[in-house]
Description:
Elements lengths: L13 H9 L5 H7 L4 H12 L3 E3 L9 H8 L7 E3 L9 H9 L6 E3 L8 H10 L5 E3 L8 H10 L5 E3 L8 H10 L5 E3 L8 H10 L5 E3 L8 H10 L5 E3 L8 H9 L3 E2 L4 H13 L10
Parallel strand pairs: 1-2, 2-3, 3-4, 4-5, 5-6, 6-7, 7-8, 8-9
Helix pairs in contact: 1-3, 5-6, 6-7, 7-8, 8-9, 9-10, 10-11
Organism: Monopterus albus
Protein name: F-box/LRR-repeat protein 15
Pfam families: F-box
Amino acid sequence: MKKDNSCHLLDLPWEDVLVPHILCHLPLQHLVRLQRVSKQFHSLIQVYMANCRVFDLSLIGPSIPKEAFCSMLKDNKVLQSLSLKSCSDWLTDKELLPVIGQNQHLQRVDMSGCVWLTRHSLVAVSLSCMHLQHLGLAHCEWVDSLSLRSLADHCGGLQSVDLTACRQLKDDAICYLAKKCLNLQCLSLAVNANVTDESVEEVAKNCRGLEQLDLTGCLRVRNQSIRTLAEYCPKLQSLKVNHCHNVTESSLDPLRKRNVVIDVEPPLQRALVLLQDVLGFAPFINLQI
């Protein structure tokens, strides 16, 4: 009888060959499908996921079943980066809390747009992930003052926080964050009508290493706080103030002279663009006069 000398994929050493040299090159959606092939493949994927340090659902969030999410991460205790953007259709505290609770080395968490989560998830992040550096909470309207204060108390090493459209937040919570998280380099307070000069000034005075600030649509921000920002934040590289109707060129001009990138054109430049739209061409104007 002839011996079958063929070698199958699963015959290769899992932890020495398949996990570090093959599975690490497969997109996450392929891993999700692969674990359904057989019990052996399911076990292999579990071994891989238990040692995975980055888990990014931003591209496939809507298509992954929540059961698969729970199954794939149930043995993982070494995650450093977790991106949950696009999981808004199905992700709740029930699925997320166990993952957060057993991953204390997380440095980056993005929950942007996860509308079915609650403040309990943010509190869990703050209590479990004390080495957190980057946090995305854009369009998470469930973020409130108490949960943000918990974050500030326990995650003082934060470098970037995205609070875009977290409309429950007011000046008191943002000022508290600024006083506790002195290493902030990137901050978005965009699309929040509650944000005033008080928040911006507190951020400027406490977070001297600030490089990027997004105030888009913060209608109550005025020139006074932008001048404070220019005075206290020498490392500022980018400022967004579109739709901040009370911020004028008098406060922005000193920042432009420092080559800070600002998302609104100077008044003369805006006028030329409008003129070009009307005339169909740009007239020559000597700007050095």
